[in-house]
Amino acid sequence: MYQPTSFRDDCLESHIALVRANPLGMLISHGDQGLVVDPLPFLIDADEQGHVHLRAHLSRANPHWPLLQAVQECLVVFQGLQGYISPGWYETKRQTGKAVPTWNYSVVQLRGVPRVTEDAGWLRQQLDGLTALQEGRQPEPWHREDAPANYIAAQMKGIVGIEITVTHREGKWKMSQNRSADDVDGVVAALRAGDVAQQQLADEVERRRG
What we know:
Elements: H1 12-21, E1 24-31, E2 34-41, E3 43-46, E4 52-59, H2 64-68, E5 74-85, H3 91-96, E6 102-117, H4 120-135, H5 149-156, E7 159-174, H6 181-192, H7 196-208
Antiparallel strand pairs: 1-2, 1-5, 3-4, 4-7, 5-6, 6-7
């Protein structure tokens, strides 16, 4: 990933926070048939030594998981806050006209060694963890025990688990850090006047300004 110094973020806590806020990652592998890509919701964990692991599951009918048993490395990409930035928001545009459109975004790329598992205990832990992460936001959270046990057992037979030991990670937050203070002020003001997603992006631009 192209990484200008002003946009680079190697902080483990930043990476974990982005993944947990945006758990749907693009799993990318390469085999004899070329590139294979699947969107999957992931869980992320790090131990005290900073070793990172990703966990997910996918359908047994998906041909991606046999490929993962044969490859040495895969890539998962997580997209965070993002949005269009108009040159009309810059003070520079008003002063000199020397401004062009761009895009602000945050992204984390994690490379690692995949391991496929069909262990029932591992799968239950994965499903419970993913459910707790998402259902915790619901007014009446769903629990695995809410469904018939035989139904859950049948569903679990249709999936396989993936655990990825992360060997390399990169984070990039392109949030107008390369613009002047006046230009950043204009970007923040324009985004704050927009929808909820733009307002969230404004908060991140403000937080990341130099």
